[in-house]
Amino acid sequence: MDNKFALMAALLLLVAPAHAKETAADNYRAYCEQCHGTQGNGTGVNVRDMSVVPRDHTDAREMSARSDETLFKVIKEGGMSISKSVLMPPWGGTLTDEEIHDMVQHLRMLCKCKFGGS
Question: What's the pTM value of the predicted model, to 2 decimals?
Answer without folding.
Answer: 0.81
